[in-house]
Write a structure and sequence with these properties.
57% helix; nine-stranded mixed beta sheet; 2 domains; 14% strand; 11 strands; D-Maltodextrin-Binding Protein, domain 2; single chain; alpha/beta; two-stranded antiparallel sheet; MetI-like fold
């Protein structure tokens, strides 16, 4: 059965990828040759970046920029290459890294705006802020600062700070590892200028370092809520941000520049095998997919079990109330639970549970995801089971009562077995939905299958192979689950005869 499923998937994957890698796209003309040309153009920015503010305010009403907002700068770069937008506003150092990896792009000579970078520390943690500032001052004094900048910014040195403290309390860092050379992945490890700066700070404080890779616009929330001690990810000091977060001493001057398409075509003679090696083999990038797949399967399995448990309890309460009017208070609470869960998006529930419910507790993110998805799934499972119970002929309940059976016995021996068979197709659909919903785990910095593919895309600036690989894996999981349920349904039908 699985062979019949896998073979066409692999063939389709190879064919689509081959076509994508070997096709030569027409040259998309560049429409932006200076900053003055940005008016009435589509310009990509990263959500939460100050470039978004500057772009929105550009030109007033007469030459206003049409801003396209992306979670990741790598996605904006991809959109620019494909002609979906006309330019990208980015900090200068990441922009240089993007252009080095994408020869078809270039940076305008004009600087859009200059700004200062600093780290962030939560309000109320002034002692930590003072210690971090002292560490930054010491780093500049002993020459480590200049050496790191020569390595990462000016590219004239090869100095790397070696972490000394390996045991003790943690300094939790929230960052977004898609911002080279400040923070990025190399050999499946987060490295960069900011990482080495934080390593120095942690040694100064006699702490180890724990790195959280989350979305850029979630970093300040993570630090403010206590999920992280510090945030370093190229944060510009602004008066608006100062209202909710403390900034460290600025440690570098940055510029926002404009990335545009080049005026000449660039030949790409890479074969499919080259693209495959680039996306999955080089630096063992397949490990991002493997780790993400493992977490997706673990979360899906245990969230499904939790959802079944919650759903069964809620369904029993509501069914008992329907049959004999019992558990009125619990039934009212169950209705509130169903209304809240079904009336709010899954992503919002995940963020509430992580940043609010567990705000003061350091809980494993996988456990947080299991709880969030399990609670969400339980609401839908309960209604599926309840509808299955309602599908059982009421005459069978009455017959059981006439025989003197207890209501509980009737439920467990007569109603529930039939309700399970009636509900099996709908339950399967719910579990399939649950598996796919885990793709939002990246919002709390958890590596799932989708985020693994996103990290590869941010490193290679190629969308086709990582997305096809992720899609194919999801399909195989869902197809395998569907095949198992189909066999179970056949077996249950045989038992009825």
């Amino acid at each position: 059965m699985m062979r019949k499923i896998l073979l066409p998937i692999l063939i389709a994957f190879y064919a689509l990828a081959l076509v994508s890698c070997e096709s030569k796209q027409a040259v998309i003309p560049n429409k932006v040759h200076s900053i003055n040309d940005l008016g009435h153009k589509k310009v990509g920015v990263q959500i939460g970046n100050t470039a978004d503010i500057y772009a929105s305010d550009f030109g007033g009403d007469t030459a206003k920029i049409d801003v396209d907002r992306y979670t990741k700068l790598a996605d904006a770069i991809q959109a620019l290459k494909q002609g979906k937008i006309d330019a990208v506003l980015s900090d200068d150092q990441p922009a240089k890294a993007f252009v080095r990896e994408n020869p078809s792009l270039r940076i305008l000579d004009e600087v859009f705006v200059e700004e200062m970078y600093a780290g962030v520390v939560a309000k109320g943690k002034e002692a930590l802020l003072d210690s971090v500032n002292q560490a930054l001052a010491a780093m500049k004094k002993d020459g480590v600062y200049d050496s790191l900048f020569n390595t990462y910014i000016y590219r004239t040195g090869d100095y790397h700070y070696q972490k000394k403290v390996t045991e003790g309390p943690k300094l939790v860092l929230s960052t977004n590892a898609q911002f080279p050379p400040y923070e990025y992945y190399e050999n499946a490890k987060i490295v960069g200028l900011d990482i080495e700066i934080v390593n120095y700070i942690a040694d100064y404080l006699n702490r180890t370092v724990e790195i959280q890779d989350i979305e850029f616009d979630a970093i300040i929330n993570a630090v403010s809520s206590g999920k992280a001690d510090v945030g370093f990810a190229g944060f510009t000091v602004t008066e608006e941000r100062k209202k909710s977060i403390n900034f460290t001493t600025p440690y570098t001057l940055s510029k926002i520049v404009v990335i545009v398409r080049g005026d000449e075509a660039v030949e790409n003679d890479e074969s499919f095998a080259d693209h495959f090696r680039k996306n999955f083999v080089k630096d063992s990038r397949w490990k991002f997919i493997a780790l993400g797949l493992r977490n997706t399967l673990v979360i899906s399995l245990f969230a499904a079990l939790l959802g079944i448990l919650i759903g069964f309890v809620v369904a029993q309460i509501r069914s008992s109330n329907d049959f004999n009017g019992r558990y009125k208070v619990l039934n009212a609470l169950a209705k509130v639970y169903l209304a809240v869960i079904r009336g709010t998006p899954m992503m919002i529930q995940l963020l509430i549970i992580y940043y609010i419910v567990f705000s003061s507790v350091n809980v494993n993110k996988i456990l947080v995801a299991i709880v969030a998805f399990g609670v969400n799934s339980g609401a839908y499972v309960s209604e599926i089971i309840r509808s299955g119970i309602k599908g059982v002929d009421p005459g069978q309940v009455e017959a059981g009562r006439s025989l003197g059976l207890k209501f509980r016995t009737i439920l467990y021996s007569v109603v529930y077995p039939q309700a399970f068979k009636n509900s099996l197709p709908a339950l399967t659909n719910e579990f399939i939905t649950l598996i796919k919903e885990t793709s939002i785990c990246g919002y709390i910095g958890l590596m799932d299958l989708t985020r693994g593919g996103d990290i590869i895309r941010s490193m290679t600036y190629e969308a086709m192979l990582p997305l096809l690989a992720v899609a194919a894996i999801y399909f195989v999981i869902v197809a395998g689950l569907s095949a198992c349920v189909a066999k179970l349904e056949k077996r249950l039908k045989k038992n009825e005869r």
